[in-house]
Write a structure and sequence with these properties.
Elements (H helix, E strand, L loop, with lengths): L3 E2 L6 E2 L3 E3 L9 H13 L4 E3 L8 H9 L8 E6 L14 H15 L4 E6 L8 H13 L3 E7 L3 H14 L4 E5 L13 H8 L2 E2 L25 H4 L4 H7 L2 H16 L4 H10 L8 E2 L4 H7 L9 H10 L22
Parallel strand pairs: 3-4, 3-10, 4-5, 5-6, 6-7, 7-8, 8-9
Antiparallel strand pairs: 1-2
């Protein structure tokens, strides 16, 4: 397998990362542990979770799954989201970050986190406060590397500059929403990542099922789809599962079959082989879904496939919102 460097670090990670958003939600603990083990057995060594995934349940399951195998895994988790009722139980303040890190370590059953990521920006918190807290965690040995998720390019650059200026730990990665239906990161974030050797770990590479052939034009949403299973996020899914997106998704599915791949495989492969991408995050709910996608570890995107995908959605273009959960994005698509 072609293991890739994590940004400008010396750490090598698999070209796909296992996302664990479903663990503790649509995926039971027992199934989740089997899923993690199957991914590790296939060669995936980057496992991504977050404290807010099902109020910490995902971290707990990941910790149990990694018992006895922790040292062979690059373990990533995130901080930012609300984890309690108090006014300081969320955000990117020093107070919350240090408390949240200790809580994540307990849930994960480990004494260090390989990649600790700021899950979303906190525009009201100075970046120096956030980076100062993260740097102290690195110096204390609780965190090896730091990164961010769903930050605009200018905020990433601001953080890199602050690290250089103040001697703070430096972000080694950014985790953006990136798939064929929303290519806006190619306009600024991808060039930034290439210039400053920042690893990109995209989430939603399958467009949360739209590119995997999960939805059909003019038909009700599948009962087991995330758009139905997660009513609390119904508005967000309504913005992502659109008629235009489904239309492109159906054309994409036909393209995948022409090239002998499943739609999910081609969607993940396309993202994996884009410039500056280190490892897209796949988030299977079942072992069957994981088994379908694991062959992408050894696949390469052909020039013909790349050209056909570009014809569906050109570079830098957008068909469906995946930045719509980020308040800083001012250009939603109707």
């Amino acid at each position: 397998m072609d293991y890739r460097l994590l940004g400008r670090t010396g750490v090598r990670v698999s070209p796909l990362a296992l996302g664990t958003l479903n663990l503790g939600g649509g995926t039971s603990e027992a199934e989740g542990i089997r899923l993690v083990h199957a991914a590790l057995d296939a060669g995936i060594n980057l496992v991504d979770t977050a404290d807010v995934y099902h109020a910490g349940a995902s971290e707990q399951i990941v910790g149990k799954a990694l018992a006895g195998r922790r040292d062979r895994v690059v373990l990533a988790t995130k901080v930012h989201g609300r984890m309690g009722d108090g006014p300081n139980d969320q955000g990117n303040s020093r107070l919350h970050i240090i408390r949240a890190c200790d809580a994540s370590l307990r849930r994960l059953g480990t004494d260090y986190i390989d990649l600790y990521q700021v899950h979303r920006p906190s525009p009201d918190v100075p970046v120096e406060e956030t980076l100062g807290a993260l740097t102290d965690l690195v110096r204390a040995g609780k965190v090896r590397y730091i990164g961010c998720s769903t930050h605009p390019a200018w905020m990433v650059m601001e953080a890199l500059a602050a690290s250089e200026r103040c001697g703070f730990a430096r972000y080694v990665s950014e985790q953006p929403p990136y798939n064929l239906l929303d290519r806006r990161v190619e306009n600024e974030l991808v060039p930034l990542a290439e210039r400053y050797h920042l690893a990109l770990l995209p989430w939603a590479p399958l467009a949360q099922g739209v590119l995997a052939g999960r939805y059909r034009a003019g038909q009700p949403l599948p009962a087991d789809s995330r758009a139905v299973r997660d009513p609390g996020r119904a508005r967000i899914y309504a913005e992502r599962v659109t008629g235009r997106g489904i239309e492109i998704g159906e054309r994409f599915a036909a393209l995948a079959r022409e090239h002998g791949r499943t739609p999910g495989q081609l969607a993940l492969l396309w993202c994996k082989d884009q410039p500056a991408v280190t490892a897209p995050i796949l988030g299977p709910r079942t072992l069957e879904q994981l088994a379908e996608l694991l062959p992408v570890l050894e696949m390469s995107l052909s020039p013909a496939e790349r050209q056909a995908c570009d014809a569906l959605v050109p570079s830098g273009g957008v068909v469906v919102n995946f930045h719509n959960t980020a308040p800083w994005m001012k250009t939603p698509i109707a």
